[in-house]
Specification:
HIT-like_sf, alpha+beta, globular, binds zinc ion, 5 helices, DNA 5'-adenosine monophosphate hydrolase activity
């Protein structure tokens, strides 16, 4: 490990466990090279381990652990996340994209995936990776998809988690 990397990790480790995904996420949010866009409600970063040529995460600034923590008060935020995601896809008019959330949230902060459908990436290594973006484990949100789930669906999830 380079000296610089070690220092970066130490800087963060006072606040967050350096091995956690959230740690990686927070470092990416702070890293200008990873950050695509930011407004008062969300930050958009490049996925740390992109599974396609274009793979971004729209992350709310409000701490929300996962889909199951959403309430109807988050409806506007979810719609905003979709709008921001769609805006990003419009920069690549020739690419096909899907926007969505993972049904089994493994991370410690809610994030909307914006992913191009080429799945051309050295990080796409396992069947699990593939399934997590192509099967029912990927819950498509509003967007240019055939069966988008409205934002209200995600809010309903917290009352009826067995929907997924
Ligand atoms: Zn995810």
């Amino acid at each position: 490990m380079s000296k610089r990397k070690a220092t970066e990790m130490e800087e963060d480790s006072c606040k967050i466990p350096k091995s956690s995904w959230q740690g990686g996420l927070l470092r990416s949010i702070k890293n200008p090279k990873m950050k695509i866009k930011e407004d008062d409600k969300v930050t958009v970063i490049k996925d740390l381990y992109p599974k396609a040529v274009h793979h971004y995460l729209v992350i709310p600034k409000e701490p929300i652990v996962n889909l199951l923590k959403l309430t109807k008060d988050h409806l506007h935020l979810l719609e905003h996340m979709d709008a921001v995601g769609m805006e990003i896809t419009s920069q690549f008019p020739k690419e096909e994209f899907r926007l969505g959330y993972h049904a089994v949230p493994s991370m410690s902060q809610l994030h909307l995936h914006v992913i191009s459908q080429d799945f051309n990436s050295p990080f796409l290594k396992t069947k699990k990776h593939w399934n997590s973006f192509t099967s029912k484990f990927f819950l498509e949100s509003q967007g240019n998809t055939k069966n988008p789930l409205p934002s209200v669906f995600y809010v309903m999830l917290c009352q009826t988690p067995d929907l997924i």
